[in-house]
Specification:
Blueprint: E1 2-8, E2 22-27, E3 30-34, H1 40-47, E4 56-58, H2 64-67, H3 70-80, E5 86-90, H4 92-106, E6 116-120, E7 124-129, E8 132-138, E9 147-153, H5 161-166, H6 173-179, E10 184-185, E11 191-192, E12 206-209, H7 220-223, E13 228-233, H8 240-245, H9 251-260, E14 266-271, H10 277-285, E15 291-293, E16 298-302, E17 309-312
Parallel strand pairs: 3-4, 4-5, 5-6, 12-13, 13-14, 14-15
Antiparallel strand pairs: 1-2, 1-16, 2-3, 7-8, 8-9, 9-12, 10-11, 16-17
């Protein structure tokens, strides 16, 4: 199960009711921040999730509307919060800008009070948590080293207790080893294989963040069968030529990706203030009904065995329409 709390959902510049790009992903004991636009630390406080354990930061690319909040956030983390260290992941070019921001502006000519680890990502798994992984994949936007991220629960096979009972498997460590895929030998000498007591494989939850992206085709294998796809919606399709020039997608294109890749839920962010929400939703829903145009402080709980649940983070003073 993953929870997503959207902290900033505006494109390029903040609006009255939308902050710049940032979202928190809560995965068991781990917490991740995806992008960190200007004002993110205040949005974290307003959301009610707080700073505790929010020490994994992943950047999709190095444009200022996605990284400029790092200066204030890192300053707060290192001066006032009880965090031992934290890690910032991103492409090499992105991390060069972050390094200039942190060590040229926030901490000039000095060490940070706590360790700050800048780790370049490459395509593939770069973080393994408890029963889940985080994978980076390249996307096409303006400039090099742009990445999207996949949060994926481990697949699992349910333990069939009634079959174990019938085979005489006692309660205790034997059952634990079978769940882990190991054969066990019983007291009477019989050998029980995991396949005898495990059900069919159940895929784990998959949540994908694309970041800003200008081309559809490279995305499809990475977003295939996602339970939730978080994608940008900067332009309506009537301005598709402008979207292409600036390396962005239209909302219709995002909906087409979701439909073609068998996505369960589409969460559209990076919203331009030039459009009305109902026009954006109408364009997307004509192609893919399960779409949400997310707002700051929207929270989504994604589970494999249940429909996605939408709620609001603790701060609720947000209008229903930013048009």
């Amino acid at each position: 199960m993953f929870d997503i709390v959207f902290l900033g959902t505006s494109a390029s510049a903040p609006s009255i009711h939308r902050g710049l790009s940032a979202a928190a992903v809560l995965a068991g004991e781990d917490r991740f921040l995806v992008d960190c636009g200007e004002g993110t630390q205040r949005q974290i406080l307003r959301s009610g999730i707080g700073f505790k354990k929010l020490n994994h930061i992943m950047l999709t690319h190095g444009h200022l509307d996605h990284i400029l909040g790092l200066g204030g956030l890192v300053s707060t983390f290192t001066r006032w919060e009880t965090i031992d260290d934290f890690t910032i992941w991103g492409g090499k070019t992105t991390l060069q800008r972050v390094e200039s921001l942190l060590y040229g502006v926030v901490f000039p000519n000095q060490q940070t009070p706590v360790p700050v680890h800048l780790k370049p990502v490459e395509p593939g798994i770069f973080y393994r948590g408890k029963k889940f992984t985080v994978t980076a994949f390249p996307v096409v936007h303006r400039g090099p080293d742009c990445y999207g991220y996949i949060f994926k629960e481990d697949d699992h096979r349910p333990f069939l207790a009634e079959k174990a009972d019938a085979l005489g498997v006692p309660f205790g460590p034997e059952r634990g080893r079978l769940v882990q895929g190991q054969a066990v030998t019983l007291a009477d000498g019989s050998v029980i294989q995991p396949e005898e007591v495990l059900g069919e494989t159940i895929p784990g939850v998959k949540v994908v963040f694309t970041g800003d992206v200008g081309r559809i085709e490279p995305l499809l294998p990475h977003v295939q069968d996602a339970d939730a796809l978080v994608i940008e919606g900067t332009f309506l399709h009537e301005e598709a030529d402008m979207a292409r020039r600036f390396g962005h997608l239209t909302i219709r294109q995002g909906a087409e990706i979701a439909r073609n890749a068998n996505v369960r839920n589409l969460l559209v962010t990076h919203v331009s203030r030039r459009y009305r929400e109902r026009d954006m939703l109408n364009e997307a829903r004509a192609i893919f009904p399960e779409v949400h145009l997310v707002r700051d402080f929207d929270q989504f709980t994604i589970r494999r065995d249940k429909p996605m649940v939408k709620s609001r983070a603790s701060y609720r003073n947000t209008p229903e329409n930013d048009a």
